[in-house]
Amino acid sequence: MSKSIKVRGGIALGCLLLALVSLAPTFVGDRLPSWWRNAFDPIQLGLDLQGGMHLVLGVDVDKAVESRLDAIGDQFEGLLREQDVIFQRVHRRPGQRLVVTVYDDRAGAQVDSLMKANFPNLEPLTLPAEGGYIDKYFRLSDREVQRIREYAVRQALETLRNRIDQFGVSEPTLQLQSGNRILIQLPGVRDPQRAIALLGKTALLEFMMVDERADLQQALLGRLPEGSKLLYERRVDPRTGAVTETPLVVRDTAVLTGDLLSNAQVRIDPRFNRPYVSIDFNAVGARRFDQITAANVGRRLAIVLDDTVYSAPVIQERISGGSAQISGSFNEQEATDLAIILRAGSLPAPVEILEDRTVGPSLGRDSIRRGVISVIIGSLLVLISMAIYYNLSGMVANLALVLNLIFVLAMLSLFKATLTLPGIGGIVLTIGMAVDANVLIFERIREELRSGRTARAAVEAGYAKALTTIIDANVTTLIAAVVLFQFGTGPVKGFAVTLSVGIIASLFTAIFVSRLVFDFFLTRFDVKRLSI
Amino acid sequence: MQLIKPEINLDFVGRRRLALVFSLVLITVSLVSLLIRGGPNYGIDFAGGILVQVKFNEATTAAAIREAVQDIELRGLTVQQFGDEAHEFLLRSQESDIRLDGLSQRVGTALDAAYGSGQAEIRRVEIVGPQVGRDLRQKGAMAIFYAMLGILIYVTWRFEFRFAVGAILALIHDVVITLGIFSLTGREIDLPIIAAFLAIIGYSLNDTIIVYDRIRENRGQHGKKGLEFLINRSINETLSRTLLTSGTTLMVVLALFIFGGGVIHNFAFALLVGVLVGTYSSVFVASPLLLYWEQFRARSKA
After folding, report:
1. Do A414 and A492 sit in the same domain of this protein?
2. Residue A531: closest CA among chain B residues belongs to which residue?
């Protein structure tokens, strides 16, 4: 046997060995020692095969800019009062403008200089004065707006990651995408609705004083006292499931917000055997809470989450310990989720669900089963036709085909690529196309044999002449696959991966391995007539 | 075994007018169908909307399901039996304006109320907002465009520009006809279908290049006998390979179409049509186009 055949045989066997070793955890995982399983991961299944949830959330970054403007407006109002500047009001207008309304030029100049000194990021806009008072317009600089937006998205990603970590999903994926979007993948999630509820909530916790002066009837008609707003308390009857909504008028500005929390835990109220969420404030929050409760004994304090009142208890006495309770009509799981989102913090801006794809585990299993059946039947059909059409040479092609299948799977495992349902489709397709290289070679060999060459010379010439054709033909498919990989997401990307991996593997098996087999038999047995 | 005799010499190029008419008819029918239906029939991936796949424990009908969920008032709701499973249905709606979250839960609650708890299993939910749909549509179109551009460059580099033009026209021919057949059979274009289109492009080109390669090779030997002879001889010489590879590819795609299940049904259908059209086009469209290009050039020079 020539040296070249030994070397090539060694390479082929080495590749096969590596492939089998890397595939073992996928197929016989439990029976392997742990070092083996640690060294090679089983093939990763896409969400469409293992079941799970694929979410794309859009962060409403404009809301983040608006709330920043609101915060500046509040601070500026305080500043104006401190400096005894006479002004009518400070408010935000559409188009992300902050407007300070004053009565004369002197106050206007004061506003300008105060703004410049304290909020250099706000740019003044000159607009003509009208009717007795002057509107001073300000807007955030483009750079500042950009910064707030980016921060909001990053912060949202962080908060969502915290929530998911506490929710307990194995191997979640969170990814920033362009256009202020966040991609979240939760494999094997059992309760998709709960996940959505947990991720979609802004979770802005606010403590607001109930406006006791307000007339509820008037409020329901839309006539609210200045600086108050109408909210609803939502109660669900645990037995009947009936929902009641009680209106409540609260003071507009929150006296305390959730960002001053240090912890939130679920507790069970022993008297009614109902869950509640116990929250602890940090030092600043505890001091504020102490002041508020001291100043408002006998009044009601509304606990508001995302503009829904959870409860509005009467303050019985001054509370100094820095902890409070949120009770409401929720079951234990809802209480747990509430505690999770309070601990994880609120989102800097509301998020919107732009895309939601959820596949149940049973459908995933079905898809795998059907995919495997298709691969087996497809392979058998091809194997049989090749054997019939090319006899023993067909068997060589079949060996290449089986190896091709093994190599494709092994490469998926080694590259940690994800196998999806279209990915299985890609494998099926490459099985059909993988024999093409061998068909091209065999047709060439037949031509060469017809022109009177010896078996050995025909094989030699057949491989040599078919090579450029095979490469040209496959590179173009590879171009399509690579483009698909660039543009595709999720399942489609899986197809691009198996298609490209399949092409590369088929080039190796059909050219390198099958040639090796031919050379081996031709030198070993001195074949005079090819079975082709 | 040999299906094609080595000395075979069918006159493919001679029948190019017939093929031209046939292709033009197919393309016209496709375009007219697309025009009448106002563009491709986009699935929820591209149009936005909601899709819910439900499996029932007992047999039911589309009308009964429709009645069960009518209170939710889903816009443009369609209910159809799905795949070969008797108790499995697909609910689709173009609803995408209202808040998307909670929609699938409401469908689940409505079905539970009508069929009893646990009788209807929601196996898959896909909700795509209009924004995402628009983005995906753009991405899909760009993917096809860039794939074609890449191929144009590669073929120009490896062969000649006129070969590349022939190859690309053949590809457009394949994609338009496959789109047309999707439109005629009322199938929806979804994200995986774009993947299938790119695979078709790859496959069809594969076929075309093998014929081109032979033309390039034969030009050295028989260059003097004219392009028509050259093309015909090359097609005949590669005919055995064309049929065998198309045959094995068709077999596997057919296996995928029959056994792959509902989720992948349209994808497999696209591949099926694509392999057939792609094989036809590399023999009857891509190569004769070289001839037409040559005649066009000769005429414009004269």
Report:
1. yes
2. B1
